[in-house]
Amino acid sequence: MTRNTVLISIVACLAACSSVEERRIANGGFGYLDSQQQGEIKLPPDAQTPEYSNDYAIPSVDNKTHTPIGKKIEVVSPTVVMPLVTGSHIEEGSKKAIVWFDQVRDDKELDTAIWDSLISFLEERDIGVTYFNKEEQLLITDWLTYNEMEDSAWYDWTSTEREVGKRFEFRLEKKSHGRSAALTAKLTDYKESLQGKQTVDMAQADVRANEVDILNKVISHYQDQLRRDDVRRIREIREGLTTELGFNAKGDPAFIVDGTYTVTWPRLLLVFRKLGFNVKDLDQSSGLLFVEYIGSDLSWWDKLWGGDDNELSLDETDYRVQLEEIEGDKTSISFMNEDNEPFEAQAMSDIYEAFSAVMAEKNLDL
Length: 366
Known about the structure:
The chain is α+β, with helices and mostly antiparallel strands. It has 2 domains: 76-236, Alpha-D-Glucose-1,6-Bisphosphate, Chain A, domain 4 (2-Layer Sandwich), CATH 3.30.530; 240-359, Outer membrane protein assembly factor BamC (TATA-Binding Protein), CATH 3.30.310.170. The protein has 6 helices and 14 strands. Strands 1, 2, 3, 4, 5, 6, 7 and 8 form an 8-stranded antiparallel sheet that branches. Strands 9-10-14-13-12-11 form a 6-stranded antiparallel sheet, with helices on one face. Helix 2 packs across helix 3 (207-239), helix 3 packs across helix 4 and helix 4 crosses helix 6. It is elongated, with a radius of gyration of 34 Å.
């Protein structure tokens, strides 16, 4: 082993064995604390006095303000809220641990989605809830307690057990329109002990660092959930859905799709594209689509030799299609002409075979 390698190993060992507190303060000595302000330059009586500036004067430390100096100044990286979720953002300049979410999906109310994700986060980490009231938009956790090993001096090669306990309060603030909401984390209790003896209390804790840390973990969990939901939803969309003839809530003939509204809607757009429909306008919140049937895109030569199994017995004109969520995680699809008159049962039956076949087709191109 070379001399340089030995030195690097020793330095790495010393760095690894430094305590948590030592890693939060500046390296080197603090001799500057004993520095004194120099007096003004003494000039001969016949010399011209220069203009003085206080730009570089050392400010005095008022003990009443408890200004941190020396080892009391922490040099750790600043804690910032990370808005990882699509549609989330932070308040510039805010000292609170707060993040804003915007409604990007219509399958669930925004506040319900946020609370469900937060409760899921707490359950996964076995953190209890002492109080939760959705009407008040307030949740208070039980103690979050964990142990970690505190390293002693590098030459001692021993460790002592450090126990940390925290409790948090989460509040949700909704905008009047309900499509934006802010989640705030607040540290309400803190205790830290070493070898069973309390060493740090709430007054000494780095409150903001703890609040931002728990909030970032909640945000990351929310983002992971949304990502998993997207993967699952895409898989369901590609797998295909079964369809049967039936009636919608108004009693009009309809296709009943064995799939939730959030899965059936994007699936229907793929089905329409393959069946020869051009979607001219749509509104997912109301479930209404304005489409034009342009027919199969097969050339006349291809039609001459075999035709198209997906060809529908419809005039090439405009239609309206209405989706509605019904019981049993199913969705009804109704067809209407451009005058908003629903299709008769026979007309729905005529296009059912081709429609249901494409709706059930697996691995339909996205």
